[in-house]
Design brief:
The complex is a heterodimer of chains A (about 90) and B (about 190). Chain A is mostly helical. Helices cover about 65% and strands about 0% of the residues of chain A. In chain A, helix 1 packs antiparallel against helix 2. The mean pLDDT of chain B is about 95. The complex binds fe (ii) ion.
Chain lengths: ~90, ~190
């Protein structure tokens, strides 16, 4: 259960970091010469990649198709899938 | 090529079954101003956008809309999971249940299936970008109606996030419209198309 809470916290951090990166990405699509926004994008991209690797080492890959390695046996098929997380009975 | 990330863009927690709310929220899955329509509209319009900038905006917002489709699906799925037949009947979701059980299907709030006629792809970037600006406002309005209809604070929180994204998309499409107009005027003056 404690591991579960830790996992949810790490997942939330991933969601936050990738959201900031996405938001800067869309902004840069219409402001490509904004150096400050670009620096922020690069900074959050690095932070997201690092957090993603930390999470994946503990809970398995969140990307497939060559974007993250897997331990044995093939971890991609492990549950929970994203929509199974919030709807399960909390114990 | 797309790469899937095994996570939702925004956390969804649904702890109380509520088929009545699911029945309304499903319109953002398969309704006229829903996330499937949004995503497919932008992704198919991007081929005939005149600049790399405009293509990028359609590509990236179209991709984010796919993530929103998944969030809406997670809401509907969660709201239906523990619902009893009695609850489903009382909510008027028995017709949907007859055809789909608790599976996800692309319909609007009154059960009409998704259709490509919800979207347009005109080949004229000015026309297409205006359609997209209107689409974002219509999606924002729909989320506001759903927020009014929602009696579950956990669900309302997610609807607010989705509503906010439509406002950001509207902003980016507006900037893109200006940039494309500038591009077309510039091209007109300096060389023949
Ligand atoms: Fe949108």
């Amino acid at each position: 259960m404690r591991e579960d809470r830790e996992r949810m916290e790490m997942l939330k951090e991933l969601q936050e970091l990738s959201f900031v990166a996405l938001e800067f990405n869309l902004y840069l699509d219409t402001h490509p010469c904004d150096r400050r926004a670009l620096a922020e994008y690069n900074c959050f991209t690095q932070a997201y990649q690092a957090a993603k690797m930390r999470y994946e080492r503990m809970y398995g890959p969140i990307t497939n198709f060559g974007y993250a390695p897997s331990q044995y046996p093939w971890q991609w098929i492990e549950t929970p899938w994203p929509w199974q997380i919030g709807s399960e009975e909390d114990c | 090529m797309w790469v899937y990330e095994k996570k939702l863009q925004y956390p969804v927690r649904v702890t109380r079954p509520n088929p009545g709310l699911a029945k309304n929220i499903i319109t953002q899955y398969g309704g006229p101003d829903g996330e499937l329509a949004a995503s497919l509209r932008y992704l198919t319009q991007r081929y005939t956008m005149p600049t790399g900038q405009a293509i990028a905006v359609l590509n990236d917002i179209g991709t984010e809309e796919l993530a929103h489709m998944e969030i809406v699906a997670a809401l509907v799925y969660g709201l239906l999971q523990g619902a009893s037949i009695e609850m489903i009947k009382k909510a008027g979701m028995d017709g949907y249940y007859a055809d789909h059980d608790k599976a996800l299907y692309f319909v609007n709030a009154v059960g009409a299936p998704w259709t490509a006629t919800y979207i347009q792809s005109k080949g004229d970037p000015i026309a297409d970008l205006h359609e997209n600006l209107a689409a974002e406002e219509k999606a924002r309005a729909t989320y506001e109606y759903l927020i009014q209809l929602s009696d579950d604070p956990e669900v309302t929180d997610v609807l607010r996030f989705l509503r906010q994204r439509e406002i950001v998309h509207f902003q980016r499409f507006g900037e893109t419209l200006d940039l494309v107009q500038e591009h077309l005027n510039h091209r007109h003056y300096f060389y023949a198309p």
